[in-house]
Every structure is written in structure tokens, then in C-alpha cells.
Design goal:
The protein is α/β, with parallel strands linked by helices. It has 16 helices and 19 strands.
Length: about 475
């Protein structure tokens, strides 16, 4: 009998399990993959460590909640966080500009480039940098979208695109993204800068798993929960088996925490008689997924004159904000993308003298689901070549340095995380989603994931896990 069973080993589940184990609870965490972390994992190919999800993690300034969480769990003693040199470089064929993490500097620089938009630039940074106080005073329209706000303060379309260069960190469409959610997340980047975990995000996931086991808990990998047992209105345990199949096993606990997606809980893990719970999220849509092209280079791209950590390349056909969603669903030949060059920092992802990089863009499972296994592999090779060619245009000569290349699609994300539609950020963060709190249908069943109120990304999942653990501890007291 356990105090807590955690279903899933993504950052939300790991953080919740670590806090509870450190608080003296007997914890069992069950993860279907062969390593903990969910999207916070790495894998190795030909001597390269390839980063699955992390480009940069926001915050880690003094009052950032993650700083307090990591200090509480002892993570800062075992995990090294590296500040990345700049926020991002934006390129679209008309503009080529580097965005720094310093908001005051960006107001000056952008005002120099766009002198007629000075008031709009100041209005943008005022809202982003004061968003907590503005929301606390109920001075922000909770129904307003990011796109609507940008159109109201700025006329120059390229300036809007530059400011929203990293939109893909949150969503695929500015006209359905909650303005408040965007500003809260963007505020953390501008306040604390960006951070990379030395050695890759697997280091953080392993450290959190280590907190669980060091405090008497268990982390069971390669096993998948197939059901939550419910008796007399309470969750009593879980049914699980090896991910490869085999005998059905059971484990029992006083409380159950699900790091699995909320739709997975309702549609697959709970008994059929929880229709009211399924209705509570039926109007919410899973967010977009991602396609990633992983690169191992024989030499650093800096040797070819490339000096930015993150470069957001928007196709010239994206001229206004309304073009972004269309482009995200368009051909890979013109789809906007991000190139991350991990060799710009001491990432420890590549052997001496070599480098690791990644191209990332929005992706959707319907682009892949109709393909049989053979056609799927062929299409992945085609997409790989498309982005090799596009990277060559960005950094001439880089094709000759590519030693290894691999593509992960929305279908890949769905396979390894079990998230519906391969959604990496949980439910799409629309104004309606932000205003909707999904309550557990069972008193002792809790949620800790990107699918909860805190939203997606590394930060959202970590917050969710810690807040969930604190709720369990308060109730148990």
C-alpha cells in the first residue's frame, strides 16, 4: 500500500512525486517510457546527445516560483542551468533582428528601427512587464486575444511578427491565444532570461526521479497504467502492465496523481460512468504538436559565421499575423521554423569539436495518420531533406557538416507521451481555456500536468506538479 501513486513521469508527475516523497510520503511513480521526463528527455545517436524538447526555460530569477521549487527539492545543488546569450534572432527576408532578454534595451532598439511605432512598442512592454499587477487589479480583459491586442497598438506588420517571433513556444495562432497567458509567460523570459540545462533536460528529469528514490519512493519505468480503480467514490489504486504487454498488475494507494493528459484519464483510465467529467473538457481542444529535425554536426555552425542560439525563420509569405496559422498548417517548404544551435553555449550535448542543433516547427497528426509505415518513413525522409535545404539557405555550407539527422513528428510525440494529437502544451491556451478550471471527479484523484490550469511548457508542468503536491499535503494534514 502506497501513500501516493503517480501515473506518468513527465515533469508534472516527477515534481509532484519528488515533493511528496521528500515530505515523507511513500510514492510509486509509473512511467510507460524507458526513461523519466516525457518531453524533458534526451536520446543518444552516434555520440551526440539529442535534446527532445528544451530550447530555453524561462525565469529562474530570485522570486521565480521554479527557483523556490528547485531550492526546496535540492535541484539547484545537482543541476547546472546555463543562461542563453539572447532571446532570439528573427529573420523573414525583410527583417533580420536580434531580440535581447532586456526589455528596456529592446524598447530603445525597436524604436530606432520603427520610430513611428514607439508608443505601441512601449505599450507592448508595459503590459508584458506589469502583467501580474494589471491582472491582480482586474484591468485586463480576460477574453482578449494576443492578436487583437497587437493590432490595437501597432500598425507595422513586421514589427508585430518580430515581437511574436517565439509564438510557437505557446500556441500556433495569435488570434486564439489568451493575451493574459502569453504575457505571463513572456514576462518570465524578459525578467529572468532563458536557461538551458547543462547536459540536456534529461539531467533535470533524472534529478527529480532521484529525489523520489532517495526518499524511499519507487520509479517504475517501462510500465503503463491502463486503469484507475474506483470504489465507493474514491480512487483506490491503479491497474498496470509492462509497456510491451503481459500480465495485468495492481497497486493501491490513499491518493492518485495523474500526470497523464486529462482526456486520457477521462477517456481511457476511468470507468465509463464518469460522463459528467468527460463533458467538462469536451469543448476544449488539444493544442498543436511539434515536428523536430535533430542534427549532429561535424563542427560548430559558428565556423560558418552563425552566432545565434535561437533563430526564428518566418517565410516571406507571412506578412500579417493572420498568416501565421495558415503557414503553420501549410507545406513544409514554406512553414516557419526555429533553428536552435546548442553549440553557442556549453551544452555538453556533443563530443569535443562537434555540435548539436535542431529545427522545430508546428506539426499536426493529421499530416501523418493516413500514411502506412513505409509511406511514413518515406515522407519523413522527404521532410528531412526539405529542412536540410532550408538550413543550407540560412547557413551556407552547413550541409557539408551534417553527420547525423533524424526527424520526430507529431506522431512521434503522441507515441512517447500518449498525449492526444501529440499535443505538447496541453489544451490550447485560448481565453476560454484559461477561464475554465477542470475539477477532478474524485476527491482523492489529482492532476499534475500541462493539461491543468497552469498550462504547458516546462514551467507550467513544474508549477502544476508542485501545486498538486501541496494540495495533497494540505488535505492530508
Amino acid at each position: 500500500m502506497y501513500d501516493i501513486i503517480v501515473i506518468g513521469g513527465g515533469l508534472g508527475g516527477l515534481t509532484a512525486g519528488a515533493k511528496l516523497a521528500k515530505s515523507g510520503k511513500k510514492v510509486l511513480l509509473i512511467e510507460q517510457h524507458d526513461r523519466p521526463g516525457g518531453c524533458a528527455t534526451t536520446f543518444k545517436r552516434k555520440g551526440f546527445t539529442l535534446e527532445v524538447g528544451l530550447h530555453e526555460m524561462d525565469g529562474l530569477y530570485g522570486s521565480d516560483m521554479k527557483t523556490r521549487i528547485f531550492r526546496d527539492l535540492g535541484i539547484l545543488e545537482t543541476v547546472d542551468f546555463i543562461k542563453v546569450p539572447e532571446f532570439y534572432r528573427f529573420v523573414n527576408g525583410r527583417r533580420d533582428l536580434v531580440v535581447k532578454h532586456d526589455p528596456e534595451e529592446m524598447v530603445r532598439r525597436l524604436s530606432d528601427h520603427f520610430p513611428n511605432e514607439k508608443n505601441g512598442i512601449e505599450a507592448y512592454f508595459h503590459l508584458v512587464m506589469n502583467i501580474r499587477q494589471i491582472m491582480k487589479q482586474n484591468e485586463l480583459d480576460s477574453n482578449r486575444t494576443l492578436g487583437e491586442f497587437m493590432d490595437s497598438i501597432i500598425s507595422d506588420e513586421d514589427l508585430k511578427l518580430i515581437l511574436l517571433g517565439n509564438l510557437g513556444y505557446f500556441h500556433d495562432d495569435p488570434y486564439s491565444l489568451s493575451l493574459g497567458y502569453y504575457c505571463m509567460a513572456q514576462n518570465s523570459y524578459y525578467t529572468g532570461g532563458g536557461n538551458f540545462i547543462k547536459g540536456g533536460s534529461q539531467v533535470l528529469s533524472n534529478a527529480l526521479a532521484g529525489v523520489i528514490t532517495a526518499n524511499g519512493g519507487e520509479v517504475l519505468l517501462n510500465h503503463r497504467v491502463t486503469g484507475i480503480q474506483v470504489k465507493a467514490g474514491l480512487a483506490t489504486g491503479v491497474i498496470y502492465q509492462k509497456s510491451s504487454g503481459g500480465a495485468t498488475l495492481s497497486a493501491y494507494a490513499h491518493d492518485i496523481i495523474s500526470n497523464a493528459s486529462i482526456p486520457q484519464v477521462g477517456d481511457s483510465l476511468l470507468p465509463p460512468d464518469f460522463q459528467n467529467f468527460r463533458d467538462s473538457y469536451s469543448d476544449l481542444t488539444p493544442g498543436a504538436s511539434l515536428l523536430t529535425v535533430y542534427f549532429g554536426f561535424k563542427a560548430s555552425p559558428a565556423n560558418l559565421g552563425h552566432h545565434q542560439y535561437s533563430t526564428f525563420v518566418f517565410d516571406p509569405s507571412v506578412r500579417i499575423l493572420a498568416d501565421i496559422l495558415r503557414n503553420n498548417r501549410g507545406p513544409f517548404e514554406t512553414r516557419s521554423y526555429t533553428f536552435v544551435d546548442y553549440s553557442q553555449i556549453n551544452s555538453e550535448l556533443a563530443p569535443e569539436g562537434k555540435a548539436v542543433g535542431a529545427i522545430c516547427c508546428m506539426d499536426y497528426p493529421d499530416k501523418w495518420e493516413h500514411l502506412d509505415p513505409k509511406a511514413y518513413k518515406v515522407r519523413k525522409r522527404e521532410v528531412e531533406q526539405i529542412f536540410r535545404d532550408r538550413l543550407e539557405k540560412l547557413i551556407p555550407g552547413i550541409s557539408d557538416t551534417i553527420e547525423y539527422c533524424e526527424v520526430g513528428t507529431a506522431k512521434t510525440v503522441q507515441r512517447y507521451t500518449l498525449n492526444p494529437r501529440g499535443a505538447v502544451y496541453g489544451f490550447a491556451q485560448t481565453p476560454g481555456r484559461v477561464a475554465t478550471r477542470i475539477s477532478s471527479p474524485i476527491e482523492n484523484l489529482y492532476f499534475a500536468s500541462a493539461w491543468t490550469q497552469t498550462g504547458g511548457g516546462f514551467s507550467g508542468a513544474i508549477y502544476s506538479g508542485y501545486l498538486c503536491a501541496m494540495e495533497v499535503l494540505r488535505k492530508r494534514r
